Amino acid sequence: MTIRDIMKYIESEFYVINDTPCEVCGGEYAAEDVNIDIIDGVPYDVCDCICSSCGHEKTFEFCAPFIAEDGLKKVKNILN
Ligand SMILES: [Zn+2]
Fold first, then answer.
1. Which domain of life is it from (predicted)?
2. Is the pLDDT confidence value at 67 over 70?
């Protein structure tokens, strides 16, 4: 997995977030913060989002098993 592949993966997550309407008002979510969390030994890309219309908060979690193979550091370097 190259940095480019990882970036593509993260980009696709943002598409999912953009395609998900706010469950309260139907508005658009904007990503506030992206973190890598290990849940039950599996790395997850955890994205805190907030509705740009009503401020409703939602956390998106994306399973990211490749991060374990290729090292958390790489991804953290991209995100920071
Ligand atoms: Zn909303």
1. Bacteria
2. no
Å from CA of 20 to ligand 1 middle: 11
Please count the CA atoms within 13 angstroms of the CA of 38 that sit on its side-chain side. Answer: 5
In the three-class reduction of DSSP (H, G, I as helix; E, B as strand; rest coil), residue 19 is classed as helix
Distance 50 CA to ligand 1 centre (A): 8
Residue 44 predicted with pLDDT over 80: yes
- Judged by DSSP in three states, 25 sits in coil
For the record, the structure tokens of 3 come out as: 């940095």
Give the per-residue pLDDT at 74. 64
Give 21's DSSP letter.
B
Domain edges within the chain: 3-74
pLDDT in tens, 19-40: 999 999 999 999 998 888 888 8
